[in-house]
Here is the input.
Amino acid sequence: MVTGKKPIYTIMLIPLVIVVSIIFVYPLFRVIYLSFFDYHPVFGQEFVGLQTYRELMVDNLFLATILRTLIYVIVVVLSNLIIGMVYSMLTYRLRKGVKLLRLILIVPILLMPPVTASTWMLLYNEQFGLINHILGAIGFPAVMWLSSSRTAFPAVMVTDIWGWIPFVYLILLAGMQSLPTEPFEAAEIDGASSTQKFIYLMLPMMKPVIATATIIKCLDTYKTFSFVWIMTKGGPGYSSNVLGTLVFQKAFSSFQYGLGSTMAIVMILMGFLLVCLVGLIFRERNRC
Here is the structure.
């Protein structure tokens, strides 16, 4: 009976395959195709082969943006993991008022990224922003947070960290709550301190959960766009550009679709390598 139903299941999957092909496979192959052309919507296209790829490999702007994107991913993901772990430990041990505290801690994730970015833009405002108001109250001069090449990029990273801490926090908290209690009770009987139980029991058992949270957050942070674009549009100059905003600028602002497509392909390949690297790191640690 089950064997006879398999063709029906296959037929039912056909609409899904068609939809996925339309919204994912075709655009991917279209981007790959355009990466071999110098394409302009008005002046037409000219086949250039791998020339654009070769030029990107020595393009200082593109290489600097790759480095800046990697810095962005490392700082944001590590900050999310550390702060998320602290939040998880707080609410995991807390007994009274834990529901209210959890609700407060997850508020940032309830806001859409454009709303979060707009809110922090107001906080960073040079004239009437709350941050500069506090600095002025304690005797420090106002800072041009989003207008200075020295502070714009860190300011965007802080916004991203604040906005996605709850996501990592909820994953880590769910992992903690699923851990067996027997090893911790045995360690407590043996006189282990809280620090020892955290380092030698909780962290090893939490490795799969931490790996999952890291990979998901790495991918999400790597392809970030909304925070950077809304708050700085990659500026001042190119000082806060990441790969996502640079691709958008070249493809849709400068109408260099061939160059933008080539950057997008490189970005996809780097994202794949990033996930493989993170997975390899956690696998090697598990072997140890």
Residues 61-287 form a domain with the MetI-like fold fold (CATH 1.10.3720.10).
